[in-house]
Each structure stands twice: as C-alpha cells, then as structure tokens.
Design brief:
CATH class of the largest domain: Mainly Alpha
CATH topology of the largest domain: Arc Repressor Mutant, subunit A
Structural class: mainly alpha
Number of domains: 2
Strand content: 5-15%
Number of strands: 3
Largest sheet: 3 strands, antiparallel
Order of helices and strands: HHHEHHEEHH
Number of helices: 7
Helix content: 55-70%
CATH superfamily of the largest domain: Winged helix-like DNA-binding domain superfamily/Winged helix DNA-binding domain
Length: 122
Amino acid sequence: MSEIKETSTNFANKIALADECPEAYASNIIGGQWTLVICSWLLSGKMRFGELRKKLPNITERMLTLQLRKLEEHKIISRTIYAEVPPRVEYELTPIGYALKPVIKALESWGEEHRELVKNQR
C-alpha cells in the first residue's frame, strides 16, 4: 500500500476536496479495506486486539495496529488499558463511531444487493 506524501499534489488535492465536500471527508476517514470491517465488528461491543485479529484472519498484526491507531486518532474508537498483569486493552466505538451503524448497515444491504445483481448477470 503506497502512502500519499504530505507534500504531494495528490495529498493537497485530497485535503482540499475533503475541506469542501463532507462526503470526501468522511470517505477519507472510514475508507479503506479494513476500517469499516473493524467498526462493524465493534458494533457488537468491546473487543480485545486478539479477538479482532481472529475475526480478521487476513489482516496482519501491523495493519490492524495501524488501523486501530487511525480510528482512535479520528475519535471513532476508544482504547482502554487496564492495569492488570498481563495488561488488558479493549477497543470500543465512541458515540461518533457508533453513529456509523446506519451507514454500515446500509452498505451491507447495498453490498448484498449488488453482489446478487452481478452474480445473476454472469
């Protein structure tokens, strides 16, 4: 996955578009291969890193860590560390993250409908 450098024209265009278009702003935050899937699993409640990793067997630990950090940075999820031995860390949706539920459910319905449409056209 290539990163867009903050000095690139592409990055500047992406920021300008996000400033003008709320849809582009939202897409920049929740877009990507793993973000919505992680949020979808967290709709059912708090989860630990290992639990998320089991639900997403094709994601690497590094990618899961990066995605969780991004979601936390954007206030979509919160991370709670418990002072236990061994330490326990739980992730959960914040109120603004939980507000994604109707969006996730709508995308789920659309995805199922579209998949059937394409499958039936083959």
